[in-house]
Amino acid sequence: MNPTILLSALLATPDSGNQGFDLGKMMAIIIASIFVNNFVLARFLGICPFLGVSKQLDSAIGMGAAVIFVMTLATLGSWAAYNLLLVPMGLTYLSTIAFILIIASLVQLVEMILQKFSPALYSALGIFLPLITTNCAILGVAVLNIDEKYSLGYSLVNAIAAGIGFTLALILMAGLRQRLELADLPPAMKGKPVAFLVAGIMSIAFLGFAGLGG
Amino acid sequence: MSLIKDLTKGIYRENPVFRLVLGMCPFLAVTTSVENALGMGAAATFVLICSNFLVSLFRNIIPSKVRIPCYIVIIATFVTLVDMVMNAYLPDLHRSLGIFIPLIVVNCIILGRAEGFANRNPVLNSIADAVGMGIGFTLAMVILASFRELLGNGTLLNINVLGSAYQNQPLLIAILAPGAFILLSFILGFFNILEKRKGGRQ
Fold this sequence. Notes:
The structure holds two protein chains of two kinds.
Chain A: H1 3-11, H2 23-36, H3 47-52, H4 57-89, H5 95-117, H6 119-125, H7 129-132, H8 136-147, H9 152-180, H10 192-207
Chain B: H1 2-9, H2 24-29, H3 34-57, H4 67-89, H5 91-97, H6 108-116, H7 123-153, E1 155-156, E2 159-160, H8 163-168, H9 177-201
Antiparallel strand pairs in B: 1-2
Helix pairs in contact in B: 1-7, 3-4, 3-6, 3-7, 4-5, 4-6
């Protein structure tokens, strides 16, 4: 099969027929999810891991990789469940329950598969995986994709871009917090308060991206 | 006596937001106005009370190995209920809370109370705990939302407080994303000072 036909079939929206492949829309989604509507700093999704795992650069990178991985799989699973199962059966009101079950079982499955086949990757990502079930960024991207009526291709692009945006914010924060450890702060502001203050300043910086990508 | 203690501890001593720093995502996202904060607080409190009640009722039946999935299904059921009721009767509020209604499922406060309290305490105490935690969460959201709405829009509960001269040039950043982070940072710092004062006196 011709790869372009396959690609445009993948990128077509389910409800508006075969729209074909729109590079401009895809770039807009990517830029919006990474910068303009950054999941952590503009949409407030995934704040708990953002604060919990940003103390060291290594663990920030591990967590970011795990989130991108699970987010992509979860989007695939939730898109398929919603469009192939819930919509034909008229059960769309069950989507919240279905999505959280898919995410929870997916995380468990990924954990078991990694443990069996790739112990090195498991020891690198292992401790982050259970935390991901309750990461609202994963459920958030699944719900957003449905709300925006994205096709499977756009949903996957959106999920990967959102994961990259999350990782970007996490890595930036980890770099800053390593320096904050040495800073001379008023005792009341040490720890969480100053972390939020830094997040606020980063969020101001990300406001500068507003309007980019249309 | 212990019932009252379970009820009041969530409001200040173990306030889920200011003392335990849980449930940050909805907390930061919906505090753009006091109205949204109250709506979210009511929704989360309702889910919290129902899930604590059921988890506590079935605490001896649910096998401990599969308890977390069971809790999640219980919570998701009530969240779906809230989602549908709010969509039907309060469509404006439903629209402004947006995806944060389905995201109540992954609010760490609710799962945390199911796992940390309701699965080892009797039904009445669990309900008291849920009410207390819900009030604490709502109160915290209302505090931050008051600051943000007042500074960013000059209003409180949509009533003009600071006058139209302020409303022409409000401190817009308070209502945007950075304002939530920065104001929360100062509030947490203030609570740290308060706690230190209290510790010094004892």
